[in-house]
Amino acid sequence: MTQTEDRLRVVAAVPLDEELCRLIERIEPRVEMISDPSLVPPMRWPADWEGDPSFSRTPQQQADFEAMVDSADALFGIPDVSPAQLARTVAANPRLRWVMTTAAGGGGQVKAAGLDQDALDRIVFTTSAGVHAGPLAEFAVFGVMAGAKGLPRLRADQDARVWPQRWEMRQVDEMTVLVVGLGGIGAECARRFHALGATVWGTTRSGRPVDGVSRLIAPDEIAQVAGEVDAIVVTLPGTEQTHHLIGEEVLEAVRPGAILASVGRGTVIDERALLAALDDGRIGFAAMDVFEKEPLAQDSPLWSHPSVLVSPHTAARSSKEAERIARRFAESAGRLLDGEPLRATVDTVEFY
Considering just the CA atoms, what is the radius of gyration of the chain in Å? Predict the structure, then answer.
């Protein structure tokens, strides 16, 4: 896309309210939004991009859907949130120049499409990374607070109608919190923990300073500092480089009773190593919104572990999510048309 092109034909390849299509056009008048609600599955709840799984297309509807997405300069969402459909569309549509995934971790979907280098060079892929930062940071704060205030103990005493002797709770403003990953989510976590008075450390590969973070840690130094922190907040995407980064080495090095909150991708944490750390008290409490495999298996010990809070990957869910993503899309469309770099581009080497 060059600066001389003043229009962008965008197809909504996932369910998107007509109101939000028009919002995108109002924010960026050079965009023409194309959508057909009859060709995409209806949402079951806000920002349900996959839509109702019982939805199916007739052969003619499938042909119409493919013709629609194949006419696009840019796509709002991956068609059917399916890597296979993305691969088909890329091959069929040489005019396609930009795809914005509705998932913050959309790089994994792009990788799964198995696109060749020519396609990766031709098309800019961006994600909604950062849109979910506020809600996920709130869950991270909630998780650390729940551990600091002894939520499992409070719940057990309440269920048993026991009024115990008073006991000391931990104070967040006396804690050191290590945020693993200082991207959009991590930076928002850091900001909120700093506002609560915590000392905040964070991992970074770039070494760039982040507001509220007093110490920057290289990713390969996490085990070396794990024994110096009171809580670890994991915000990283799931890549080959981050797989089981929080594993046996780190979890053996933590300060006994450390709190863990996970809001990135579940594959970053080795759940077997985590269970061992929970069982012997190295991890005193874990608030988990994401897991290695989802839904969490019925026989997973995490369900019933007294020191674990299980959240079904729902911490980012918000009635405002779709609007936030639509606004991000409109802003990015303007940047694309003006020849400016886009935010949250997918690294097509590591796919995050």
Answer: 22
For 32, list phi and psi in degrees, rounded to 5. -110, 115
Structure tokens belonging to residue 194: 């700093």
Which parts of 28-105 fold into alpha helices (H)?
59-69, 83-92
For residues 141 and 347, give the distance between their C-alpha atoms in angstroms, rounded to a whole number.
29
End-to-end Cα distance, the chain: 23
* Domains identified in the chain and CATH numbers: 8-130+318-337 (3.40.50.720), 133-310 (3.40.50.720)
Give the pLDDT confidence of 125-142 residue by residue, as tens digits: 999 988 999 999 999 999
Query: Residue 258: what are its φ and ψ, rounded to 5°?
Result: -60, 150
CB 149 within 8 A of CB 122: no
Secondary structure of residue 329 in the 3-state scheme: helix
104 pLDDT tier (thresholds 50, 70, 90): confident
Q: Please spell the DSSP secondary structure of 122-177, one letter per residue.
A: H-EEE--TTTTHHHHHHHHHHHHHHHHTTHHHHHHHHHTT------PPP-GGG-EE
Q: Report the alpha-carbon distance of residue 1 to residue 72 in Å, rounded.
A: 13
Query: 32: which 2 tokens?
Result: 């023409």
Q: What is the mean pLDDT of the chain?
A: 95
Cβ atoms of 21 and 77 closer than 8 Å? no
What confidence tens digit (pLDDT) does each residue in 47-82 have? 999 999 999 999 999 999 999 999 999 999 999 999
What are residue 203's DSSP bridge partners?
A: 217
Spatial CB neighbours of 144, under 8 Å, sequence gap ≥ 6: 172, 175, 177, 193, 231, 233, 259, 261, 287
Q: Is the pLDDT of residue 2 over 50?
A: no
Query: Distance between CA 283 and CA 275 in Å, rounded?
Result: 9
Point out the residues that are catalytic: 265, 294, 313
Helix (H, G, I), strand (E, B) or coil at 199: strand
Instruction: Identify the pLDDT of residue 3.
Output: 43
Q: In the predicted model, what is the mean pLDDT of residues 113-135?
A: 95
